[in-house]
């Protein structure tokens, strides 16, 4: 029950918070009660600059009128419609709109409700596709060390973040992992793609030699790894991975839950890097974070492999109660229209250089051991406190919040991904505040 005078709930115990130090948080809660454009409003009335687009998702900023109005209208008009053997117009309209901005060849869209569900869907489609074309021995899935692909069992199996895996015991059998490309000793303070590490894609050759190409169904990677701490692909790495997967009949899945919808200045990272995968997972920026929604983009080659047999039979035994939810579709359409009308993808590209120079101005400050960036995303890696990993960056997060700026930390890495509507003065405030924080850290 909330206290009307302060907007602070008088009981925080019931909500078991995700990815949160619950005991620490509930001793000193950080509560947002409103948001508009680039800022959150806290329960005590302070303005906090959003340096993370919410959770990598509010690419157009907060409380954007077109999206708000679309959701309000849709709730009153058609709140829910089943997606199994039924449909509603906006689901088809949104799928077509996504296709129109997707990389060439991505012709079909399967709706989910989150990035985690998009990953599970893509992995299942990959396995089912291999069976559909007579390659049923291909059951292995390949991820990457330090990869993040959501929190469901498929995602943590191909994922490579240790803490996301170790608590839950058994994962999917037969998953393999490529080496990560976070080579700070060779690539520190890179602007854009690093020079070193492309050859790490060749580890897929070792897997093929050991296990047989006929056992591997798909490789899934983030084109640019976000949750591991903003790790850029080395020059030539994605191209090499694409060449090898084609060589051995292995599907390539790009997890673009973070990079989709403008984060790197293009609609998708596949377009930015000019590398064509077979499947793309999306979520977050699809609806600007307003309503949960995700999607998997597939080529016609994959889609059409299922379109066989009697026409009255279900082709893919997979889906969710809320796949293509009408309210989510309305939010998605309004979000994509906002991106288009305000030319936000090109705007992100035009702001990238100013962002880059501001970010790299932090080089030489206490405890900073690396800075890296691409598009409107960046990371500042800190030297850990001996015996207390993650604590230094967490302290930076708390102090930045107190100074009116929202950042995100993963391990001892500070990650930032502001809304694409950010202005230069916001960048100055964000980086200037972070500089003050870093100067004061123990």
Automatic annotation (TrEMBL):
**Does the entry feature the keyword Transferase, yes or no?**
yes
Q: What Gene3D superfamilies does the database record attribute to this sequence?
A: Aspartate Aminotransferase, domain 1, Type I PLP-dependent aspartate aminotransferase-like (Major domain)
Superkingdom in the source lineage: Bacteria
* Cofactor or coenzyme needed: pyridoxal 5'-phosphate
Which UniProt keywords are listed? Aminotransferase, Pyridoxal phosphate, Transferase
Alphabetically, which GO biological process terms does the record hold? biotin biosynthetic process
User: InterPro entries attached here?
Assistant: Aminotrans_3, Aminotrans_3_PPA_site, PyrdxlP-dep_Trfase, PyrdxlP-dep_Trfase_major, PyrdxlP-dep_Trfase_small
In alphabetical order, the GO MF annotations are: adenosylmethionine-8-amino-7-oxononanoate transaminase activity; pyridoxal phosphate binding
Q: Does the keyword Transferase apply?
A: yes
Coiled-coil intervals: none
**Would you identify the family this protein belongs to, as annotated?**
Belongs to the class-III pyridoxal-phosphate-dependent aminotransferase family.
PANTHER family associated with the record: ADENOSYLMETHIONINE-8-AMINO-7-OXONONANOATE AMINOTRANSFERASE, BETA-ALANINE--PYRUVATE AMINOTRANSFERASE
**Can you name this protein?**
Aspartate aminotransferase family protein
């Amino acid at each position: 029950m909330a206290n009307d005078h302060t907007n602070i709930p008088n009981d925080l115990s019931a909500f078991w918070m995700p990815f949160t130090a619950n005991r620490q948080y509930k001793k000193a809660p950080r509560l947002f009660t409103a948001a508009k454009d680039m800022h959150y409003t806290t329960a005590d009335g302070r303005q906090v600059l959003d340096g993370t687009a919410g959770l990598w998702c509010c690419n157009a900023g907060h409380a954007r009128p077109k999206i708000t109005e679309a959701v309000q209208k849709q709730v009153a008009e058609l709140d829910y419609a089943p997606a199994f053997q039924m449909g509603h117009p906006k689901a088809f309209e949104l799928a077509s709109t996504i296709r129109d901005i997707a990389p060439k060849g991505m012709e079909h869209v399967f709706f989910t409700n989150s990035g985690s569900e998009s990953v599970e869907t893509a992995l299942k489609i990959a396995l089912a596709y291999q069976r559909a074309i007579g390659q049923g021995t291909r059951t292995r899935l390949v991820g990457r060390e330090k990869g993040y692909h959501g929190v469901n069992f498929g995602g943590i199996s191909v994922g490579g973040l240790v803490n996301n895996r170790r608590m839950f015991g058994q994962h999917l059998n037969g998953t393999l992992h490529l080496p990560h490309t976070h080579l700070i000793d060779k690539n520190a303070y890179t602007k854009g793609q690093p020079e070193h590490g492309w050859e790490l894609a060749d580890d897929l050759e070792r897997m093929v030699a050991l296990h047989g190409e006929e056992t591997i169904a798909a490789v899934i990677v983030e084109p640019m790894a976000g949750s591991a701490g903003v790790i850029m692909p080395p020059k030539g790495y994605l191209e090499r991975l694409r060449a090898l997967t084609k060589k051995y009949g292995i599907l390539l899945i790009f997890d673009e839950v973070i990079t989709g919808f403008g984060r790197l200045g293009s609609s998708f990272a596949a377009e930015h890097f000019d590398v064509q995968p077979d499947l793309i997972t999306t979520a977050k920026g699809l609806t600007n974070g307003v309503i949960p929604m995700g999607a998997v983009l597939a080529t016609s080659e994959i889609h059409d492999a299922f379109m066989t047999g009697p026409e009255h039979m279900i082709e893919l035994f997979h889906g969710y109660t809320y796949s293509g939810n009408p309210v989510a579709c309305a939010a998605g359409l309004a979000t994509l229209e906002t991106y288009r009308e305000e030319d936000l993808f090109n705007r992100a590209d035009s702001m990238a250089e100013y962002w880059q120079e501001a970010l790299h101005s932090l080089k030489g400050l206490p405890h900073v051991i690396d800075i890296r960036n691409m598009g409107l995303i960046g990371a500042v890696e800190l030297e850990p406190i001996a015996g207390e990993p993650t604590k230094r960056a967490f302290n930076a997060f708390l102090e930045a919040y107190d100074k009116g700026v929202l950042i995100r930390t993963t391990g001892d890495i500070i990650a930032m991904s502001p809304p694409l509507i950010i202005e230069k003065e916001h960048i100055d405030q964000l980086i200037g505040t972070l500089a003050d924080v870093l100067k004061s850290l123990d």
